[in-house]
Amino acid sequence: MNLHANGTDLPISDEYLHSRSAAWFAFAMTIGLMVFDYVDRQVIVSMFPHLKADWGLSDKELGALVAIVSFVVALGGIPVALAADRLSRVKSVAVMAAAWSLATISCMFTGNYSQLLLARGIVGVGEAGYGSVGAALIASHFPTRMRGSLLAAFFASASVGSLLGVMLGGVIASKWGWQSAFGVVGFPGLLLAGLYLFVRDYKTVKLTPELEHATHSAGGVARRIVHVLTRSRTMMWICVAAPAQLIVLSSIWVWLPSFLNRVHGIEPGAAGVKAGLIVLIGAVGSLVSGAMVDRAGLYGERARFVAMAAGCVATFVVFTVAFGAPVLGVSLSPQAQFILIAVGGFLMTCTVGPVTAVVIDVTHPGVRATGCSVLSLVQNLLGLALGPFLSGALSDAIGLGPALAIVPTFSLVAAATLLLAARTYDAERKNTADFAEAQGHFAGAMQRAA
After folding, report:
1. Which of 14, 43, 84, 408 has the fewest CB atoms lying closer than 10 Å?
2. What span, in angstroms and rounded, lies between the C-alpha atoms of 121 and 98?
3. Which helix H or strand E contains 98, and what residues bound it?
4. If residue 189 lies in a helix (H) or strand (E), which one and from where to where?
5. Domain 20-195+220-449's class?
6. What does the pLDDT look like over 342-383, one tens digit per residue?
7. Domain ranges of the chain
8. How far is 20 from 30, CA to CA, in rounded Å?
9. Can you give 403-417 as a three-state secondary structure string?
10. Model's pTM, two decimal places?
């Protein structure tokens, strides 16, 4: 994605920004907060059976409790990332983490569905922009050759957080009530928010006059986003592929505990633990796929996209068999079905890290977090928010099993659009790199900041 017509850019660097130790400290702290970001997002999932019993909620209403967080993150991500890019990434992250942690704690004091939905929306306000700013910090601290794998690890930590959220929510809710779970998981984020202030930031890069003007108003930002999406074919197709695959991922993450509880009669706490294992397998899958996509890049840039597309097709095949076979009357034992779901869980995270690396490769360094937030917007709004809500609405209409058999079709959409993105990515990345080589201003700024 090329956010500028003229200006400075980041060269393809093989050096650490400050030092190896500073980079790895930033990486560890950023991953730690990403874990608790998703703990606080996903803790509610294993509470669905309790909320359904206590308040008589529909699946669509339950799905909305998850979707509202991603919806608010999508709307708030770009303004937050713009502020972080122009002010301080590190201080912005600390404020974000404190805000979403306090909002999570407030959920334990809600007395009805409307209050809980509002509190969950405030969690999204705090989390808006964090993935984009965190990814930009990691990418800037480390050499270019390491970004794909490190960003895959960063986003894989979301799976770890989801695992802990689902497992802790189910266990705590079964023993002390679902309200207590919010209080338990909310406090660690406050501690990490304070410690994050010791992370070293990267120097704010001066923008071109055109880009500076574009970031001064909401209208200017909106026009710039439209310009980016219409100018860059790669970005346009990535903004279709990435959320399409996330519709599948978020649907499985959110509804698997309820599926195991309703279809197989597993107690909610135990269902949360089993579903958490699938999330953990997805984290491993994200790491493996990130490394494989990086390795595929040795055979040409298009090979990276082919590897991601193959993972999406495999996701569709495995989940369609796992959830569709029983719907069509084909007998599957609970063990066989769970094994298939586990394989699908491993495959479905195949795009998570690499698509962000693609965007970062062609983004102006002065708005790198903002560039990532454009991708984050569509991922959250059209992927993480739409998936649980769409699956819940389908479940109300045709049942949860059939709904989960239909949703994997979106993986085919992801595969097709990734292959379309491959046709333009190499040329656009090369143009950005050539421009950075000619300017070279950012490299000098980094040396002075070190």
Report:
1. 14
2. 15
3. helix 89-106
4. helix 178-195
5. mainly alpha
6. 999 999 999 987 888 787 776 665 555 566 677 878 888 899
7. 20-195+220-449
8. 15
9. HHHHHHHHHHHHHHH
10. 0.74
